[in-house]
Specification:
With 319 residues, the chain is an alpha/beta fold. The chain has one domain: Alpha-Beta Barrel (TIM Barrel). The strands form two sheets. The protein has an eight-stranded parallel barrel, surrounded by five helices. Helices cover 41% and strands 15% of the residues. Helix 10 packs across helix 11. Strand 4, helix 5 and strand 5 form a beta-alpha-beta unit. The chain is built from eleven helices and ten strands.
Amino acid sequence: MKLGFVSDSLGNLPFDAVLNHAQRMGVSGIEVNACGWSTAPHFRLSSMLGNREAQKRFAAAFEERGLEIISLNANGNPLHPTDPAQGQGLKDTIRVAGEMGIRTVCTMSGLPAGSAGDSMPNWVVSSWPPETQTILRYQWEDKLIPFWTEIAALAKENGVDRIALELHGNQCVYNVPSLLKLREAVGPVLGANLDPSHLFWMGADPLAAADALGEAVYHVHAKDTMLNRPVQATTSLLENGSLMNIPARSWSYITLGFGHGEEWWRQFCYRLKMAGYDGWLSIEHEDVLLNSLEGLEKSVALLQGVMPSAPADFKPQDI
């Protein structure tokens, strides 16, 4: 496996400083935020599209420091009913990735409205009342599958081999069954960006998810979640309070090791290896209490101690 981080983890720093810190910390690459729910302070998508000179300068800054561009990230809602710029951003990200020889694009499935006449995304997480099923049929049959069939063709046209969908709340694809359902409908260009932090707060088990996804794991975000049991006991894990008010929330994104200890992350890395994954662990720092650089350094140190990085070479002797 290789270790890197998402560029927005140090989004408050200039581009060169981000690369210098990556080199100093000993990581191998950076996942670059390009659009969507990111202001993309280090990557101007519109300036990169079709601009070979700008692309070469950008890539050279990585190469000079012995770093790789892990992927381009277009996280957001590409199926937003009133914000078509998010879907266009994903398409342009795929085109730029193809031009730059980047084979993986990370994004999210998107979440349409609940019907043709609605203007806001509608996330269905209940089976009752019956209109929930009508909403799901509309979202999947009329919006999600046609959109991703088009995107799969665009990816193939541009030489992008893998689109890694993050299992994330407020998206049609948020768990293992929904990822596999869309993958079956569209094809193997779609796989999972497995981020345990979201599965924690949704009550799933990331270790079991790694087992179940197997070869469909295309990317991994390393981010932790603290489950605040006293608050959870009265509010549940369905939480819509301010992300900044950690003491009042039933769960919060947190620096690696502060929500789940080193032993859990050791098991996670090993289970990924068991499932056949030998790709990137891309740290995503979203802890509002710890300094970004400090939190990232702590996360890097933890994963460097537990992730397998060399190929296996042991086998029992033939005696």
